[in-house]
Design goal:
The complex is a heterodimer. By secondary structure, chain A is of the alpha/beta class. Chain A is built from five helices and eleven strands; from the N terminus they run E-H-E-E-H-E-H-E-E-E-E-H-E-E-E-H. Chain A has a single domain, classed as 3-Layer(aba) Sandwich (Rossmann fold). In chain A, the strands form two sheets. A nine-stranded mixed sheet of chain A has the order 2-1-3-4-11-10-9-6-7, with helices on both faces. Chain A has a two-stranded antiparallel ribbon with strand order 5-8. The chains are: A alpha/beta, B alpha+beta.
Chain lengths: ~240, ~80
Amino acid sequence: MLKFAVVVFPGSNCDGDAQWAASHVLGQSAELVWHKDTSLHGADVVVLPGGFAHGDYLRTGAMARFSPIMPAVKAFAGAGGPVIGICNGFQVLLEAGLLPGAMLRNRGLKYRCEHVYIRVERTDTPFTSAARQGQVLRIPIGHGEGNYYAPPGVLETLEAGGQVVFRYTDAEGVVTDEANPNGSVNGIAGICNAQRNVVGMMPHPERACEPLLGSTDGLVVLESVVQSLAEARHVP
Amino acid sequence: MRARVFVTLKPSVFDPQGRTIADALHSLGYGDVGDVRQGKYFELDLVTTDPARAKTLAAEVADRVLANPVIESYRIEVD
């Protein structure tokens, strides 16, 4: 059984959903870790959940990087441990420098809360390894600042290095401007670091893990990390 | 001393709020207003009486916390 650590910042509000998806739906162990803790308690996977860490008053995710737990998260990521930041967690990873780029206000300035379609661009991350290349997932978003931006040069590096993990598309998996809910450059919905073990995504896979929630397409994200770690452990 | 920190999106970064404000001004008949860029303004009350120290401190705070250097730039005034 894997041990998930779901970091809880003051203002996180998807921590319970992530814990539920990992424990109840996937049958793994999932512990909430308060941001003032300095240890991840031997976790195998770290989740930075959605919400409004520290209130997002200055910028989304800006203050969370100063939380006492973050050195442990950085060390875990640096050692190759799988880390996923979902929505606000993605914003935290950007502000903490664990992923490149930054978030701007949504192009239309509105908070968008709806199901969208995203296409799996890469299956060589621990959070997409169980998905099919090009698989289209129907997963909800809920954010006001999900307009991903990377400076020229950085964007080219991301694209050339295959670090774009998810893109907003229509139901057929075609990238269109209409299908892009926030104006993200190149329709980017999720990226990974160069080492591929840290993934950030704006859509909420943990909110799409049970039929009652209208979609189970998010399951593959969490199942991927369970499978990839199980396989890694069986490698002699 | 007091430091005033003006944080704005870099010129190369699209500012959706600024654009919306500009569109609103145009619809109000202010055709002479071109583009609008919006940002944040911080006033820091500082213990120091040394202007150079005040500016250094404000710049450190702006670099580390108030601005995100990926998308924002800032300007500091001290008095």
